[in-house]
Amino acid sequence: MRDAQVHAAKTEDARRIAELRTLLDQANRAYYIDASPIMSDGEFDRLLKELERLESLHPDLFDPTSPTQRVGGAPIDGFTSRRHRVPMLSIDNTYNESDLAAWHERQCSALRGGGSLFDHDLTFVADPKIDGVALSVRYERGQLVYALTRGDGVTGDDVTHAARTIRSLPLRLGPEAPEVLEVRGEVFIPLGEFDRINAEREAEGEELLANPRNACAGTLKNLNPKVAASRKLGFVAHGRGEVSDPSFAKGHWAFLQRLRELGVPTSPNSVLCRTLDEILDAVRAFNIARRTLDCATDGMVIRVNDFGHQEFLGTTNKSPRWIVAYKYPAERTTTTLLQVEHQVGKTGKITPRATLSPVQLAGTIVQHATLHNYGRIRDAATEIEGTRTDLRIGDTVLVEKAGEIIPQVVQVVLAKRPSHAQPIVAPTSCPTCEGPVEVEPAEAAEFPSLETARRCINPECPAQVREKLIWFAGRKQMDIEGLGEQTIDQIRASGVIPLDHFADIFHLHSHREALLALDRMGEKKVDKLLAGIEAAKSRGLAKVLAGMGIRYVGDSTAKMLAKRFRDLDALLAAEEWQLRPKTLSPTEAEARGLPRDPKDREETGLGQLTAPAVHAYLHSEAAQKTFRALRDVGVDLSSKDFDEGAAASSGPFAGKTIVLTGTLDTFERETLKAILERLGAKVSGSVSGKTSLVIAGASAGSKLDKARELGIEIWDEARLLKELPPDERS
Question: What domains can be seen in the chain, in order of their start residue?
Answer without folding.
Answer: 2-71 (1.10.287.610), 93-327 (3.30.470.30), 332-456 (2.40.50.140), 462-536 (1.10.150.20), 541-642 (1.10.150.20), 657-728 (3.40.50.10190)
